[in-house]
TrEMBL record:
InterPro entries: Gfo/Idh/MocA-like_OxRdtase_N, Gfo/Idh/MocA_oxidoreduct, GFO_IDH_MocA-like_dom, NAD(P)-bd_dom_sf
Start and end residues of each GFO/IDH/MocA-like oxidoreductase domain: 134-256
Pfam families: GFO_IDH_MocA, GFO_IDH_MocA_C3
Name of the featured protein: Oxidoreductase
Annotated GO MF terms: nucleotide binding
Gfo/Idh/MocA-like oxidoreductase N-terminal domain mapped to chain residues: 5-123
Superkingdom classification of source: Bacteria
Species of the source: Skermanella stibiiresistens SB22
Transmembrane regions: none
Residues annotated as signal peptide: none
Length: 342
């Protein structure tokens, strides 16, 4: 299977490492044949580093000349719609990094373009593919808690995100668009679809224009009351970044994903702790290794879906529901009112 990638920035390195690992696994047989970046020097450097035969400064030219089996769009938000619609016009299935779109209108247009062209579209929503979170989902599906009634999804830390991604400091919508949509997607993955959401935000770090803390109260149709809680302004030790912490309470027991990647399963008179850290891949480094492992997992899922002709778990259509919650959170924070979803 021949792939191409657009965008050779900070996070794209994880995509490139994962594709390289898949190329080197004979049974997977996936090869990136070209990379593209507006900065041709970045594209050339990535091609040389990862042994990719072609590099481009223009995505349209790359897709027309290479005619790949898919394109991985690892660019920032402003370019997503144009690139996804370009892929659709050329009949190329596309992966798109998150945040998928700046508006529901843009997201719906991309989903429609790919559907009309008959090509697959997946959003690179990798949090739910983190190994510790998959283990939480497994325990939940196995019925450990009985019927769940409360769930908390938390990502609070003080790691300097701006140092690696300085453009985020200029965004008027910061933490919910950057990380909150990941947590809302995880909450949907665990608890189902939401019916009502209330959100409060604040800005603590003077370097950023947008909100850097947010707390959401979410009512799920399943009967779960959820709290989705995130911050990049939290000063604590040991630093929890980039761990997503979980607590789920049910009629029979409790599931907790604690700091240090410990899955704690408890019921009255019983408690067990399981280590659920992700594998440290040869190209990965701590503390990013859990995220890096999830990138490989979601890219494998994408390839499996292409080969089997099935819709990805985080398809463009599915991500519309995550974006609806994301934009609903901003609407709630701005108005002070809860948002109800149909």
């Amino acid at each position: 299977m021949r792939g191409t990638l657009v965008g050779c920035g900070f996070f794209a390195e994880n995509h490139l490492n994962a594709w390289t690992a898949m190329r080197e696994t004979p049974l997977e047989g996936v090869e990136l044949v070209a990379v593209c970046d507006r900065d041709l020097g970045k594209a050339e450097a990535a091609a040389r580093r990862f042994g990719i035969p072609h590099f481009y400064g223009d995505a349209e030219t790359m897709l027309a000349e290479q005619r790949p089996d898919f394109v991985d769009i690892a660019t920032t938000l402003p370019s997503h719609r144009a690139l996804v619609e370009l892929a659709a016009r050329q009949g190329v299935p596309a992966i798109c990094q998150k945040p998928f779109a700046a508006s529901l209108e843009d997201a719906e247009a991309m989903v429609r373009a790919c559907a009309d062209a008959g090509v697959q579209l997946m959003v690179h929503e990798n949090f739910r593919w983190q190994h510790p979170l998959l283990e939480v989902k497994r325990a939940l599906d196995e019925g450990w808690v009985g019927k769940p009634f409360f769930g908390r999804v938390q990502f609070r830390h003080g790691f300097d995100i701006i140092a690696n991604q300085p453009y985020l400091a200029e965004d008027e919508r910061y933490i919910i668009m950057d990380v909150g949509l990941h947590l809302l997607d995880v909450a949907r993955f665990l608890f189902g679809e939401a019916g009502r959401l209330y959100c409060r935000t604040a800005r603590v770090d003077p370097r950023v224009r947008g909100e850097d803390t947010a707390t959401m109260l979410v009512d799920f149709a399943s009967g779960v009351t959820g709290v989705v809680d995130l911050s990049t302004a939290t000063k604590t030790e040991p630093e929890p970044f980039p761990e997503c912490l979980i607590r789920i309470e049910g009629t029979e027991g409790t599931i907790e994903l604690d700091q240090g990647y410990r899955l704690v399963l408890s019921r009255t008179g019983h408690r067990e702790v399981r280590p659920v850290d992700a594998e440290l891949l040869p190209w990965a480094s701590r503390p990013w290794h859990v995220v890096q492992d999830s990138v490989l997992a979601i890219q494998r899922h994408w390839v499996d879906c292409l080969r089997e002709g099935r819709e990805p778990d985080t398809s463009g259509a599915d991500n519309l529901r995550t974006l609806e919650l994301t934009f609903g959170a901003y609407a709630s924070a701005e108005t002070g009112q809860a948002v109800v979803f149909g």
